[in-house]
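Notebook entry, structure prediction.
Reason for the run: the old model in the group folder had no record of what sequence produced it. Starting over properly, with the input documented here first.
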Amino acid sequence: MGAPDIAIKKYKLVVFLDSCYWHGCPEHGVIPKSNREFWEKKIKRNIDRDMEVTKYYKSRNWNILRFWEHEVKQDLDSVIDRIINAINALQKSL
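New structure, fully documented this time:
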C-alpha cells in the first residue's frame, strides 16, 4: 500500500514528497485543458489514494510527513529541519 519516498522503520516514520501536478496541489496543481474530464478523474483518484495511504500508515501507528514538491523546491532546508525534528521527537519517545 503506497510506497513512501522515505521510510525509517526504527522510528516508524514515513515521508512522502508529493508532486504538485500529480497529487493536486491546491496552490500549483493545474488540470490540462484537453481531455479535462480524464485528468480531473485521474488527479482526484490520486488525492483519494493519498488519503487511503495516510489512513493505512496511521492505523499501523506510523508517523507521517507529507511535503509538496513546491515546499521542497522553495525551502529544502525547512523540509529537512522538519524531518530531523520529527526524528528527534520520536527518539525521545523510545
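Summary: The mean pLDDT is 95.
The old model has been moved to the deprecated folder.
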